[in-house]
Amino acid sequence: MKLGFTPWIRFQLQTPAPVVEADLAGKTVVVLGANTGLGLEAAIHFARMNAGRLILACRSQSRGEAAIEKVKAATQFGNKLELWIVDLADFGSVKSFVNKFEQDGGRLDILVANAAVSPLSYQPTKDGFETSLQVADLSTPLIVLRFLPILDKTARENGTASRVVVVSSEVHYWASFDKKVWTGSDPIIRTLGGAAYHQENGSSAIRARYPITKLLNVFFTRALAARVSPHRVVVNTVTPGMCKTELARDLPVILRPLVWLMHALLGFTAEQGSRQLIFGAVAEPAHPEKLHGQFIMGSKPTEPSDFVLSDLGKKSEELLWEEVVEILDKVDPKVKQVAEEYLARKI
Prior knowledge:
Helix content is 50%, strand content 11%. It is of the alpha/beta class. It has a single domain (23-337), classed as Rossmann fold. The chain starts with a helix and ends in a 5-residue tail after the last helix. It is globular. GO terms for molecular function: oxidoreductase activity. Keywords: Oxidoreductase. Pfam families: adh_short.
């Protein structure tokens, strides 16, 4: 599928469908990036659905505490609300987060992986990868894969299907990339995330980065969905559309008036965008497998980009999957254990 400018305008002008409702009593929900915007609004929706336990995973203690108070004020939901700290730009922080949950011994029914940053220049993390790539396409998969045994166990013990929702974007349709990276012999993520690539390509590498991180979200979701049973863990990816959130807060001053105007004319509110996260997490309760591996846009499964479905896209998906697992195995040896026990073959 191609998404042209006119169809995108029509999409942004439509009235979003109402939020899907569900009874989450007794269930545990984790929302990454819950301190503001889409993640915070999704947390408010989950609280209103009476989640048995709701964990807001945030990078900042102070902003996380403020988010907790906002959820409480909006819902009167308090005793089962928890703030956990995790910095997705730091593999050590991510491992501590998942180890803590693993030791906690509790169930996990819904994981919403809502995490993205959009820096204006090449900013490597202390782990050696470009920041937005590590946050969206390495740390997010690390959390998902480490949580997979808990999600699977929860499903088996309760006769349910656990859910994983990865927040992507319709901008993956417009991702532009250097074909040499995708058709060459060098590893894709290591190339895109390394200093040498950014030194060679300058500012153009960063300008193209956000859509690419969202394209990689789609690839990861599809690759994972092909390897897990939808009767236990349903995996999908969603786009909230263009929303009035803080993601563009780091844009150059010269671009802010244009973005403000686009948001004013076309942008969904963060609450409206969060409805897509909720849709991926609780829609189709009788047949959740209908959403397995799907890209969800406008509260319905939608065909991803032509590149994703092309022969090169399918090849890239497999190469990226292998590279992500290889990188993460070096970061955390437990990833290999999960892969061997739960992802032994492609379904």
